[in-house]
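anyone seen this seq b4? input:
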Amino acid sequence: MELRDIFRVIRKQGWIIVVVGLVAALAAVGFSKLQTPTYKASVQLSAEPARLEWGLSSTIKDILRSYVVRLNTYNMAQKVIDRAQFDMSEDELKSKLTISSDASNYTIQIDAKDTDPIVATQLVQTMAELFVEEREQWNQDQNKRDRVVVTIVDDVGPAVLYSPKTKMNALVGLIFGVIVGGLIVFMLEWLESDIVRTPADVERFVGWTVLGTIPADAGPATSRRKPSARRRGASLSV
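predicted toks r here
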């Protein structure tokens, strides 16, 4: 199909693409409105060596992974539940958490998702405070030169909306609808590709120049005197 044919198809049936795209976008918005909003709160912990030494700094990079394991334990989950007075099981609390470490900057990030933004914020704040207290207690039995100081990088901010992202869903729905609408349009065009409607179609398919056309309602003079929309139709002759 030539470029001019593509433009012709879009100009003729482009409304199908627009309608399908809008319907898909509205469907995505409707689906987003039906979802229960989920909020996400985050906090970062920093692990710093008591002294600037390459060996101790390298050790902390390995220790970070063990810290992530400790934070993910049922024991820690129960401590958080007890202190924050959450009405949930340990498994339920753990399912709300995502904990990761970044050895490049000696940090651990704790993320929590919940339908209640206050619960999400309280969960990460409580877990961070408990872990800092645990590390402080551990340091009491260590030589000051070998201690690893764990602190909260910054206060936990308010939880933000994690899902649904209505605008993003609407944009994705619109793009998907436009693609589907385009496929529908070109499928219809392909199904009608063998139908000859205009002199240009004849010239394109046969390769001959059309010299004239015969009116489709050519007949008795009495019938030709009656105005009719059919007069504008034409059958082609070459």
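The chain has eight helices and seven strands. The first helix runs from residue 3 to 34. kinda curious what u guys think
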